[in-house]
Design brief:
CATH architecture: Roll
Distance between the termini: 38 Å
Number of domains: 1
Number of strands: 8
CATH class: Mainly Beta
Helix content: 10-25%
Structural class: alpha+beta
Shape: globular
Largest sheet: 8 strands, antiparallel
CATH superfamily: Electron Transport, Fmn-binding Protein, Chain A
Length: 199
C-alpha cells in the first residue's frame, strides 16, 4: 500500500503542489513537552526548492511552537492529504530550520515564492525542510472535501502592521519569544523585511 521515494519529483511533486492545505508536526526533545500540529494553507506560501528540499513561509500567529522545536532539535514532518481525486497521503519526514529575516539566505529563499506578497501576512521566517524519508499511503479514510477560496482574515489583520508594530505585537504574546514549554522561539525584535532577490 505505502511506497518510499528517493526524491520529490514527477507525480509526487505535482500532487504536493496541487494541495490547498498541508500540516506540520514537531515536538521538543523532552518526553513531557508539547507536541505541535499546525495547518498551513495560504496560497503561494509553499515551494519545492529541489528534489529533497521544500520550504514554506512562516507567518504571524499566536505562538511559535514550530520555530522553537526546530531551533532545539530540527525534527519535522509535513503531511498532505488528497481531499479530491484519487486517495493519497504524502509525508515528508526530515530536518527543518527556521531562516529568519536577518539571515543572508532569506532574500534568495523569498524569491521561490513569486506568487505571494508576504507583507500583509506578517512574514516571520522561512522554514526550510530537508527530506530524510518520503512516503505515501493510501488515504482511503480521508473524506472528499472541496476548496472554496482562501480566507482574507489573516491578510486583513496583519496588513495594518509595519515591521515595528509587528515586532511589538509579538512581544506582547506569551508564546512567541518562547514556546509553551519555555524553549527559545522567535528572536525579537523583528528585523526589517528584506526585498526578495532571484536565485
Amino acid at each position: 500500500m505505502g511506497k518510499t521515494y528517493e526524491r520529490i519529483d514527477g507525480r509526487l511533486r505535482t500532487f504536493i503542489e496541487e494541495q490547498r492545505i498541508f500540516f506540520t508536526a514537531t515536538a521538543p526533545l523532552d518526553g513531557d513537552g508539547t507536541v505541535n500540529l499546525s495547518p498551513k494553507g495560504i496560497s503561494g506560501s509553499f515551494a519545492v526548492i529541489d528534489e529533497r528540499t521544500v520550504a514554506y513561509l512562516d507567518f504571524a500567529g499566536s505562538n511559535a511552537e514550530t520555530v522553537a522545536h526546530l531551533r532545539e532539535n530540527g525534527r519535522i514532518t509535513l503531511m498532505w492529504c488528497a481531499f479530491q481525486g484519487p486517495p493519497d497521503i504524502v509525508r515528508v519526514h526530515g530536518r527543518g530550520e527556521p531562516v529568519f529575516r536577518d539571515d543572508p539566505r532569506f532574500p534568495g529563499l523569498l524569491g521561490h515564492f513569486p506568487d505571494i506578497d508576504p507583507t500583509p501576512h506578517g512574514l516571520r521566517a522561512i522554514i526550510v525542510v530537508t527530506a530524510e524519508l518520503i512516503r505515501d499511503t493510501c488515504g482511503y479514510g480521508v473524506p472528499f472535501m472541496s476548496y472554496d477560496e482562501d480566507r482574507s482574515l489573516h491578510s486583513d489583520r496583519f496588513r495594518r502592521e509595519d515591521d515595528d508594530s509587528l515586532s511589538k505585537y509579538f512581544e506582547k504574546k506569551s508564546d512567541i519569544a518562547t514556546s509553551i514549554d519555555g524553549l527559545p522561539g522567535l528572536p525579537l525584535p523583528l528585523p526589517a523585511l528584506p526585498t526578495p532577490t532571484g536565485e
